[in-house]
Amino acid sequence: MKILALGAGGFIGSHLTERLLRDGYAVTGVDTHSDKLTDALKHPSFTFVATDIADRRFDLDAAVRAADLVIDLIAYANPGLYIRMPLEVFRLNFTENLRIAESCVRHGRRLIQFSSCEVYGKSVAGIAAGDLADPDDPKHATFNEEESPMIMGPVGKHRWIYASAKSLLERVLHAYGLEGRLDYTIVRPFNFIGPRIDYLPSQQDGIPRVFSYFMDALLNGGRMLLVDGGRQRRTYTHIADAVDCIARMVARPGAAHNQIFNVGARGNEVSIRGLAELMREIYAARFRLPGQPLAEIAEVSGREFYGEGYDDSDRRIPDIAKARSLLGWEPRYDLRATLDDAMGYYVAMTRGQA
Ligand code: UGA
Q: What mean pLDDT, rounded, does the chain reach?
């Protein structure tokens, strides 16, 4: 089977590409950069096309026609970008992704579309804790693909342009599916983490995810900044578990036909403050150099850190019953092992061992 992986050069794309090649598929990867694809580039069944998807000299239709399956991972998926360049986020995450989906419709190709757990927005407890007898009960923040509502903030909080673009795209794919014109599978990742995630902000311009900020502070000095007190909670999923789930979607087209899947390790929930504390503890125990000071934890407001228009998901836990029953998938890595691997990668990289 031939797979077209659009956005293969990113964190998730590179891990997924390596796994698909190991599973015996031929993969054509498309991206603007290939620095995370060092291993894949050596593989005889891998072809890399260096292009921006928006560059009309790239013949998207021909690439889609040549494949049996299209996996679309193209996205800007870091909240800092939703604040800094909301229109560009909409253009890539909706307009360009829609063009890919419509090419799959035209040529009758199966599509695995990466979306985001951001589409769930805030939890019920996040907007109405005072009305609930048990606001901390995980049931208020456990999201189910078929039943949970999507609760976004107001337009003026432009963080939500990303989630709105992703959820509109999902709705378009669903509508094509209803008309029998598209065989799709939608993936909603819940904070995948692992080697090669993002980049260290001291080494590259931009606004990566929280893990990279904390890692940078631990490695290079500086403070681990908790946005709005660090009470927000996330569930972190090891990239190896995540990729294993996607590989099952690839291998079982019948089970995954016109389905949306939450992909996340529901047991790995932690507050952002808890994440900072655990990373500090792991760093002190495993990676700290003799005499190296341990990064301090401090607080900052969302507005100060990201700018005007920032808002946040308070808590999100995946219901993974569907991935369990249709794909036989179960995440295996706990939070500590997940962080150990991601942190170990950055430690080795900055000390010249990776
Ligand atoms: C992001 C994207 O928006 C999702 O689309 C994506 O699916 C998701 O990451 C993911 O990795 O799966 P988010 O979890 O909000 O969502 O991303 P982070 O930037 O890592 O932020 C997590 C939390 O940490 C937020 O509450 C943020 O305010 C906070 N934060 C961030 C800090 O407290 N300190 C920092 O230095 C950076």
A: 97
Task: Determine contact, residues 156/309, Cβ cutoff 8 Å.
Answer: yes
The arithmetic mean of pLDDT across residues 88-102, rounded, is 98
| Domain boundary assignment for the chain | 75-197+237-268+314-333
The token duo for 302 is: 């969302």
CATH of domain 75-197+237-268+314-333: 3.40.50.720
Residues 289-319 have pLDDT tens digits of 999 999 999 999 999 999 999 999 999 999 9
Q: How far is the CA of 190 from the centre of ligand 1 (A)?
A: 11
Cβ–Cβ < 8 Å for 113, 184: yes
Q: Establish whether residue 235 lines the binding site of ligand 1, counting it when its CB lies within 6 angstroms of any ligand atom.
A: no
Q: What is the pLDDT of residue 188?
A: 98
Q: Which helix (H) or strand (E) holds 263?
A: strand 259-263
Ligand 1 pocket: which of 191, 231, 304 to mutate (most atoms <8 Å of CB)?
191
Judge if the beta carbon of residue 195 lies within 6 A of ligand 1: no
The verdict on the CB of residue 118 being under 6 Å from ligand 1 is yes
pTM of the predicted protein model = 0.97
Q: How far is the CA of 100 from the centre of ligand 1 (A)?
A: 27
Single-letter code of the amino acid located at 43: H
- Is a pLDDT exceeding 90 seen at residue 354? no
| Closest atom, ligand 1, to C-alpha of 208 | 19
Cα–Cα nearest to 319, from 271, 273, 260: 260
Q: At CA 227, angle to CA 224 and CA 230, rounded to 5?
A: 85
Tell me the three state secondary structure of residue 116. Answer: coil
Which of 23, 48, 12 lies closest to 197 in space, CA to CA?
A: 12
